[in-house]
Amino acid sequence: MTATTAGPATGRLPGRRTGSARRPWIEAAGCALTLAAAAAAGAAALVTAYRRAEWGESGQFAWFWAGMLIFTVPAAFWAVRRTSGTHLRLAVLVGYAFFTYLPKLLRNPTGPLYHDEYAHWGQSHDIVLDGLLFQQNAIVRVIGDYPGLHATVASLATLTGLTVWQAALLVLVLAHVLVVLGVAVLAGQLWPDPRIGAAAAIVYSLNSSFLFFDTQLGYESLAIAVLIWALVAGLRAIRATTAGARARWVALLLVLAVAITATHHLTALWLTGILSLLALACTAGSIRSRSDRGLAVATRVAWASASGSAVVVAVWMTVVSPRTGTYLEPYLGRALDQFSGLAGGGSGGRTLFSQSIAPWWEQKAAFVAPGCALLFMTGAVILWWRRRHHAEPVTRAASTAMLLLGAMYFPATLLILTPSGAEGARRSWAFSYLGIAVVVAPLIIALLDRARRRIATSVPVGVALLASCALMLVGNNAAGMNPSYRFPGPPVFGSDTRAATPEVLAAAAWLRETQGREARLVADRYSGLILGSYGEQEPTTGSATFPAYDLYRAQPGEPIPAALLHQLRSWRFEFLVVDRRMAEQVPDIKIYFETNEPIPHDGKPAFTRAQLTKFDHLPWLIKMYDGPHIAIYRFDFDSLGRPARGSV
Q1: Which segments cross the bilayer (predicted)?
Q2: Of the candidates 174, 179, 301, which has an alpha carbon nearest to the alpha carbon of residue 228?
Q3: Strands 630-635, 621-626: pairing kind
């Protein structure tokens, strides 16, 4: 995309003035004062937004985005400014990384809140208590096979004396900083102008996972940081000029690939896929330029890197976690079925922002953001095409791979229209946006440089770019995360982030204190989150092969399926948890037990009071705990076959 020579960024800016020695310090002081004031004002606005949401007042959305943009706009300005020095630009990016972690930190500073956070926090906590890796997890059954995050958090907590949650925050903040810096360094492997690297980091931060999803206590939050630096190592290996240097960089890449694979399955698959794209692009370039020996060597190194990563992933998923494939397959399979039904005019779709409390301008921004990304990608393709013959061969091949990676973002957005595909689409954007960021960044700098030569257009171009940045920041996050995940508020039935009510926490504490840890129990999704984390139990919410939810679905007087009772007994389940709110309210996220449950979701409660109180009369269930909404029963399978107690 540029006529510069190969090699990583040097950090030296072209055309920088060599004025008095005091000028860099003056710039640094001005930048520090500007961003310090912006950070203070932005943080105050974020706190105000959360307080208004917690108290049920309006305006939280406007306050939140005002707080984010108050800091983002000046940070972007200083990051891509021509006269900003290397150290100043580095400081700005680090500061930007810290500030962009603030929304999630303020959202839940003291403990887990999101669905997967309960699982990962509980897994890390169990390692601290028991010292054992690869243990089954009751909330997310596959994460026990990927202990990288949990081992890191548990080790840090043990070594420092911090709580598990405090240790997790340190790991997550460091990973967030490494993501921002890693994107800048990755772009710097292709184009030596450090402004392009800084622009790439800012563009990447606009993706829907950056503020909330990849800042949560989840294995992707750590793994994606390692993935970006693994790609840096891969490009370094391809560019190396000696066999020894290539071997060292490939070895580092493979070490990072092992770390990623031991941490998160999807990130490991994406690493292999991206490296394969890079190898294919190098192969295509090598075929066109048969006389370029350097590119031929780079192609062999690229394929060695991709093959090594593929072997690591294949061995892990075959030997350590053979169930990963069966865990992931249903999500994509059902999404494709639903999407084909939608395309054929049938059912299977979902209505975006149905009953959402997000303001109209957030919803509009969510629809416009992909179009804005497409516009910038189109411009990036045009720029790449014009400069392709002047670019160094490895840069041309790598930028081609990044274009292909970025292009994957757009078909993935269509999956958001299906219930099963929506989650997968959101999770793919964090990876495909890496390609968008790397290839769009040169376009942004080219537009700024062109506008700079024309005084009349410099300000309008800058304002237009900042406005696009703001629109995509708002729109992507509105599309990627529900308001209940982003903002606090009163307890809401059927919301992962508001499941930890005092009543459920009290029930979890009672069960742990009176019955011990690791008891197998059947529960709904939301009670199961708390009982499986704070309660340290092993809940199940049911599945197609183990339809535990049929206990709740059975009508009074109707026999429970014998096969289900056999499963419960043979697998030594001890307790049944019933939340009677299932007969009174509709879950906020339209799920009672699990994503593909065979339960109607027609806007009214799927259960009756009689269905949930029938357990009081069954002889093989003994009520042990009874709260305003939560009841806990002990299974007494030896009493199966006895007549029911009283009438239902």
Answers
A1: 25-50, 62-80, 164-187, 219-238, 245-262, 268-289, 301-319, 365-385, 397-417, 429-448, 455-474
A2: 179
A3: antiparallel
Report how far residue 251's alpha carbon sits from residue 260's, in angstroms, rounded to the nearest whole number. 14
The number of residues in the chain equals 648
The 10s digit of each residue's pLDDT in 225-265 is 999 999 999 999 999 999 999 999 999 999 999 999 999 99
What stretch of H or E contains 491? none
Q: pLDDT for 397-446, tens place per residue?
A: 999 999 999 999 998 887 665 555 566 677 889 999 999 999 999 999 99
Instruction: Please report, as a single letter, which amino acid is at residue 118.
Output: Y
Residue closest to 424 by CA, chosen among 497, 488, 330, 517: 330
Q: How far apart are CA 46 and CA 52, in angstroms?
A: 10
Residue 645 near residue 619 (C-beta atoms within 8 A): yes
| E-only strand ranges, 3-132 | none
Place of tokens 């014998």: 562
DSSP, residue by residue, 198-249: HHHHHHHTTSTTTTTGGGSSSHHHHHHHHHHHHHHHHHHHHH-SSHHHHHHH
Structural tokens at position 183:
């994107």
Side by side, which strands form the sheet with 520-522?
A: 538-540, 520-522, 575-579, 630-635, 621-626
Contact 178, 225 (CB under 8 A): yes
Domains of the chain: residue spans and CATH = 23-486 (no CATH), 496-639 (3.40.50)
Distance CA 111, CA 106 (A): 11
Compute the chain's Rg from CA coordinates.
Answer: 27
pLDDT above 90 (res 21): no
Going by C-alpha positions, the residue among 443, 419, 488, 431 that lies closest to residue 208 is: 431
pLDDT at residue 344 tops 90: no
Tokens for 230, please give them.
């693994």
Angle ∠(425,427,431) on CA atoms, nearest 5: 105
Say how far apart CA 373 and CA 433 lie, in whole Å: 10
DSSP 8-state code for residue 145 = G
Q: Is-above-0.85 flag for pTM?
A: yes
Cβ atoms of 619 and 564 closer than 8 Å: no
In order of 126, 147, 149, the CA distances from 123 in angstroms are 5, 9, 10
Nearest to 183 by CA among 207, 150, 158, 167: 207
In 3-state terms, what secondary structure has residue 623?
strand
Q: Whole-angstrom Cα distance, residue 100 to residue 30?
A: 21
Q: Is the Cα dihedral 77, 79, 85, 88 positive or negative?
A: positive
CA atoms of 156 and 141, how far apart (whole Å): 24
Could you tell me which of 414, 287, 407 has the C-alpha nearest to residue 338?
Answer: 414
Cα-Cα-Cα-Cα dihedral of 436, 441, 446, 449, to 10°?
Answer: 150
Res. 62 pLDDT band, cuts 50 70 90: very high
